[in-house]
Amino acid sequence: xxxxxxxxxxxxxxxxxxxxxxxxxxxxxxxxxxxxxxxxxxxxxxxxxxxxxxxxxxxxxxxxxxxxxxxxxxxxxxxxxxxxxxxxxxxxxxxxxxxxxxxxxxxxxxxxxxxxxxxxxxxxxxxxxxxxxxxxxxxxxxxxxxxxxxxxxxxxxxxxxxxxxxxxxxxxxxxxxxxxxxxxxxxxxxxxxxxxxxxxxxxxxxxx
Length: 208
Hints:
Blueprint: H1 19-40, H2 43-50, H3 54-60, H4 64-79, H5 92-102, H6 112-121, H7 127-154, H8 164-181, H9 188-200
Helix pairs in contact: 1-2, 1-4, 1-6, 4-7, 5-7, 5-9, 7-8, 8-9
Keywords: DNA-binding, Transcription, Transcription regulation
Protein name: Transcriptional regulator
InterPro entries: DNA-bd_HTH_TetR-type_CS, Homeodomain-like_sf, HTH-type_TetR-like_transc_reg, HTH_TetR, Tet_transcr_reg_TetR-rel_C_sf, TetR_C
């Protein structure tokens, strides 16, 4: 498909692709994924929401799965810049707080928790979707925290030998716990790091 913001490109023997139509279809697909989930959403509903005909949609995507993969990729591309934290101007503890903040699934997309729940429900029927989500939305976030911890170890702020994988996983899980308990996510970064920091910081950094 033509990516949002790109110029329409000509198809062999046909008219140029209309980037605005592509954008409308992608946005309609993303909204239907949140409202209905993958199994219940239909091509007809998406076409109606995007105000296009079914043939117009099928000329771009031959299956619902292909359309959903592109709709997910649209969101992933917009999030990629968040998977790096510049430590140069941050105190070590502050850098970890910022990394945990960006770990929030809803940091970019407020509907992400519902979307992830929908895909978890598809694990038996369409496991490929959960695999895509894991690769592009979960692992980069968890790796962000692990990488920040590694850099803090290199600067002597965090002890060697801490279990970075488990720490990152626990931080990620905190957002889901808050979601299911009906609690605010706003205080999670500071609250989580306030518990972790005394246990992982080197002696000279524990009071930060």
